[in-house]
């Protein structure tokens, strides 16, 4: 399983202009198979071991997230590492309030199942990161978002997904908590008013591993084939 370099392409600018052309790798069948396995085993982790995450491993994940694509190369994501017990407790309280409201909205036939879908990450995960987006970042100079400003938030989502895959490849779990009030979380974490919450992440070593989503194993929902959401024109 390896990535073999190609022959360097000729510079379109000439041989003497000092331009540096990176040599792209060639990913072999073994690598592609492993990548497919990574996609299959990446999970939204809800149950974590309390084992601490090594500082070097955590820093490496953040470095991978920073390699995500972003509109106009703006890198608009803002990561808040939540470590203070008081702030964690505040986020936990916000979750409990929102979760109770969500449970009340469930139809009778699903309420019991919803109540059993425990989210223990906020209690056990050694690392918690709130991912915010700065809607008006200085970097990027506004490129690519004049007609679709929501691409700023999409960029933050790509950073989360990049981190997620990097974590899964290293045997580290990530759970995305979305049952939260964004304004309340922003206040609890004392961030700039213009920042917008995109996701709250629990990160650590999974208590269990499976290549099947927990929501599917619990009978909440099942993956659908590509034809269910593919439209051709």
How would you describe what is shown here?
- With 233 residues, the protein is α+β, with helices and mostly antiparallel strands.
- It has 8 helices and 6 strands; from the N terminus they run E-E-H-H-E-H-H-H-E-H-E-H-E-H.
- The protein has a single domain, classed as 3-Layer(aba) Sandwich (NADH Oxidase), CATH 3.40.109.
- Helices cover 38% and strands 14% of the residues.
- Helix 3 (85-105) runs antiparallel to helix 7.
- The protein starts with a strand and ends in a 16-residue tail after the last helix.
Structural class: alpha+beta
Measured between the Cα atoms of the first and last residue, the distance is 39 Å
Overall average residue pLDDT: 90
The major β-sheet equals: 4 strands, antiparallel
Strand content: 5-15%
Q: How many runs of DSSP E, i.e. beta strands?
A: 6
The figure for the number of domains is 1
Coarse morphology: globular
Q: What is the helix/strand order?
A: EEHHEHHHEHEHEH
Q: Which regions are unreliable across 5 or more consecutive residues at pLDDT < 50?
A: 5-16
CATH class: Alpha Beta
Q: What do we call the CATH topology?
A: NADH Oxidase
The count of helical stretches stands at 8
- The CATH superfamily turns out to be NADH Oxidase
Radius of gyration, CA atoms, in whole angstroms? 21 Å
Task: Give the neighbour order of strands across the main sheet.
Answer: 3-4-6-5
CATH architecture descriptor: 3-Layer(aba) Sandwich
């Amino acid at each position: 399983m390896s990535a073999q370099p190609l022959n360097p392409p000729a510079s379109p600018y000439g041989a003497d202009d000092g331009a540096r052309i990176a040599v792209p790798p060639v990913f072999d069948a073994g690598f592609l198979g492993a990548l497919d396995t990574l996609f299959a085993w990446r999970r939204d982790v809800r149950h974590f071991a309390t084992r601490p995450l090594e500082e070097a491993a955590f820093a490496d994940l953040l470095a991978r997230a920073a390699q995500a694509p972003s509109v106009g190369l703006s890198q608009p994501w803002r990561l808040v590492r939540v470590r203070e017990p008081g702030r964690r407790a505040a986020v936990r309280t916000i979750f409990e309030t929102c979760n109770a409201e969500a449970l009340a909205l469930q139809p009778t036939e699903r309420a019991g199942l919803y109540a059993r879908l425990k989210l223990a990450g906020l209690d056990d995960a050694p690392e918690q990161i709130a991912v915010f987006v700065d809607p008006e970042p200085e970097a990027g100079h506004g490129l690519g978002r004049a007609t679709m400003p929501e691409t700023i938030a999409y960029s933050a989502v790509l950073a989360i997904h990049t981190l997620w895959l990097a974590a899964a490849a290293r045997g580290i779990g990530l759970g995305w908590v979305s049952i939260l009030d964004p304004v309340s979380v922003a206040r609890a974490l004392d961030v700039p008013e213009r920042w917008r919450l995109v996701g709250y992440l629990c990160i650590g070593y999974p208590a269990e591993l499976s290549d099947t989503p927990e929501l599917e194993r619990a009978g909440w929902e099942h993956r659908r084939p590509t034809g269910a959401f593919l439209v051709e024109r």
